[in-house]
Each structure stands twice: as structure tokens, then as C-alpha cells.
Amino acid sequence: MTYIKEGQILQPFLVEAVREHNALPLTGRCNLSCIFCSHRHNPPDIKAFSFAPLSEGLWSDLAQYLDPGRKIIIGESATRLREGEPFTHPQIYRILERLRLLYPETAIQITTNAALINENALKILATLKPLEMVISLNSATAAGRNLLMNDFRPENALRVLSMMNNYNIPFHGSLVALPHLVGFDDLRKTIVFLDQAGALTVRLLLPGYTAFSDLAVVPPPGTSEILYSFVSEIKSELKGVLLAEPPLIENLDSVVEGVNVNSPAFSAGIMAGDIVTEINGIETLSRVGTFNTLYSSYNPVLTVKRGSDFIKVSSSKKGSESFGLIMNYDLDPDQIKRVKESLNLSASALMLLSKPALKRWEVAADKFDIKNLTFQAVDSLYFGGSINCAGLLTVRDFQQAYNNANNPLSFDNILVPAVAFDSNGQDLSGSSYLNLKTGSIPVTLVT
Ligand code: SF4
Asked: What pTM did the predictor assign?
């Protein structure tokens, strides 16, 4: 990981973060040192960058190019820039106030480890709504937070969480699940703590590791399976919604995991477990499609499958207001359509894709009757370990998967996920997708 101050290397990544993700990068610095932090476990030649807190000249320039129609993201790595803890930026409150002035109506999302926030900070944040926080708590016990995050003042974050409700700041909580280090009792306490503190959702992140990770974070075999059953067991005990990530997706049905309180979905009486089958009489295609359609709909009428009954539900919702359904991420129907259309032009294609995406695409191919599409799952050789999300795959990984496919020269087109490449078509090691050796078969990025 290279550390850079301001300058030309940084500029294109900053612009890409703003333009593509509506994210405003602020600093690569973090006040903690989590044992699972993805920034610590990278191959030595990775083209990812840490960076100093942006100067006022730079952040205020970038802020002008954010899209008021989309949520503004703070504190999430969106490009090759390693995003650190936003509250370490010396001008964080000035930045947030400027954003609010520029975009009075736009929601701002801040991801934080909460170690540097106190009650005064909450008072300021409460004046900057619409705003939501994503809090990486990881453990609700002092010993757990200390062990996992090297947080030597864990009481700060725990105190802040217990005050969130007083300031009516909506928030989501997350924990990286490492039960072999902290025990299942710690996981349970953390989930219940976040739920009682009023978290809209609690995300339990299944532990991933690379060949460069500390051995301590490598969970024993079978941990993921145990965690999935743990999640389904504890879910029903909570007021809010508990999601496992990555989710287990077996179909593209629009299954509702939960409903935000005081949202149009809540007022319409939609419940966890319902399946949205139609919106305004048109069949739903996937969870992502349902989410997007509802986001842009005005007073949508839904058909919902509850048990074996189909119920018509009217709702009251403004145009670009959130409908309030919480669903897992599956596939965007527009992306499925683009792939299907590209196959009209070519007789057959081989899609190289991450392991978590494989099942979803198999289901999509079946549901949308996509012919002549063959799938090949890609292992991450570059990172090694259990890491398998598409954004971390490299040309080397795709090449290996292509070489391992049956009859790789028999296809007319090779499809690879665009998310693995930056706007110049380069992966995390700096190699272009055009370096994939597929004979004369063209390689297409799936956007
Ligand atoms: S709080 Fe986030 S950025 Fe900081 S060390 Fe932990 S995981 Fe990394």
C-alpha cells in the first residue's frame, strides 16, 4: 500500500469516487487498528493508496460535483483509495456543514468506528439531517472491542451507541463475526446491544481472510455454515433486522427481510417474510429491481405473497423517498437484460464470475431463459484465502478460470464483471482486462 499526499496520482481516484459512487473521500488515516482490517492484508504489489487528510481546497472543490439526487457517502472505500476513519479529519464538522449547505435535502451516510464521537458530536450531527450513520461496532464488550479493533477506550463507542436514540439519528450497526476469537456469546451480546440501541439493521459480516492475513483471523472450517444458522436462529428475537453478508441467495424472489419504522412500507403494513410479487400490476424481477422501482414510484400498489395468500397493498409515498423495505442484494434486472441482449449478437458466451455471484446468475439464466451462457467461478489467486468477492478479482484470477473452463476456445465472447476494474479497465494489480489471453475471442465487461 502506497501512502500519498495530494497530487496527480490521487486526483483521478478522487474524481472517480465522486462521479461513480457519489462518495467524498476524506482521509486514509484511521485511529484504530482492527485485526481484520482489509487494508492490512494486501499483496505487496497492490495498486491501492492511503492518503493524507484532504486539504480544504481539495474537498471543497470535489464537494461541488456530488450528485444531489443520490445519497452522499462518507467513510467508505469506493476506489483504490483506502478510506480511513472520517472523524480523524480535522475539519470533519466543517465538511459536513458545507455539504448540508450545498445540498439541503440530500441524505448523507457516514461510516465510522464511533471511537471519536461524543455527545457533543451527536448534537451537531442531529442538526445535519437527513443523515444516517453506519457504525462498525464489532463487539459490545470492552474486551472484544479491545481485542478486535485495538480500541483502548472502548467505553466511548459503547456510550455513543446508547445515546443515538436521544438524538434521533438513524443508524445501522455492523460486526465482523470472529466467534473463534470472541465467542458466540460476544456476538449475541453485540447484536442484541445494537438492536436495543435502535439500529435499523445489524449486518453480521462473515469473516474473510487472504493469504496475507494474520493467522489469528482465519476461522476454523465450517464457521460460515454455523454463522448462517446462528443468524437465522437469533433473528426472530430482535426488534430490528439482522442480515448476514454475503447473504445466501437461492432465488430472485423479492423477499422482505424487514421494514423501516415510519416508512411508507411500514404504514402500508408490509412485514418481514412477505414476498413482493407485483408493483402496479407488473411482475417483480429481483430484489434489486423491486428496490429500484419502489424508490422511483409514487404511491405504488403492491401485490404481496404472505404465506399462501396474495394481498394487494396500497401505499402513500413521494417520488424519490425511500419506500423502507430491507432486502438482501441479488441482481439488477437491467444488468441481466444487458447480458441477454449481448447474447443476441453472439452465439455463446462464457461468463467468469465470483463464487457468490454464481448461484444468482444460474438462477437468473433459468428465470430469464438466457440461452448459450456458460458460467465459470473464479478463485482469487492474487489474494488467496477465502476472499472471493468480484471487486477483488484480478486478470490473473480470470485467466486461470478461463484456462480451466471446458473448451475455452469454443465461445464467441468472454464476459467478466466490470466491478473488478477501474474506469481505465485496470484491476487492483494494475493489469488491464485487455491482457486476458483468450485467443481471438473478445472480452466484454459486464456493467
Ligand atoms: S476502523 Fe475500519 S479502517 Fe480503521 S482499522 Fe478498523 S477496519 Fe480498518
From this structure: 0.90
